[in-house]
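Researcher: Next entry: DUF1993 domain-containing protein (Sodalis ligni).
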Amino acid sequence: MVTTAQPNISFYQASVPVFIRMLTNLSSLLAKAAAHVQEQGIEPSDWINARLAPDMFTLARQVQSASDAAKGGAARLAGCEIPSFPDTESTFDELQTRIAKTLTFLGNLHPEQFEHSGERPVVMNMRGSEKSFTGNDYLFQMAIPNFFFHITTAYDILRHLGLAIGKKDYLGSFE
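Model: Predicted structure:
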């Protein structure tokens, strides 16, 4: 078996730029959705409250959850306080504001804050029980997969409602 050297990548690089990129892409998706509902004369709340299945979160809650996953994930790894945003957004503009606040928080984090994040213990209350992770396991087994779940589900709701979007919209440009 041939092995190749693994590049050194920091926990900052593996998290914050990923969260920023995908939240920025989500913001673009929401802008397209807002323009579409306005052009088509669709009640915006029909889309904000849409869900893929009765037991799944609405579009608004998927965006809130993506925001929570990004800010919570980054804060836990950086060893700083997680900003608290009330889950009250009910319009496209309010969801955009939530994303902007999350992006501001992420943009104010510095790589030095993530030194030794892999060994840092992360303890979370998940559905009434306490779960403990190393920072490494938390980032790669919980934070990133959870974040992408909510981003993808928001995309899927918009696509299901008929918004003309595709993989390029999800991934964004590579400039």
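Model: Note for the record: The chain is about 60% helix and 5% strand.
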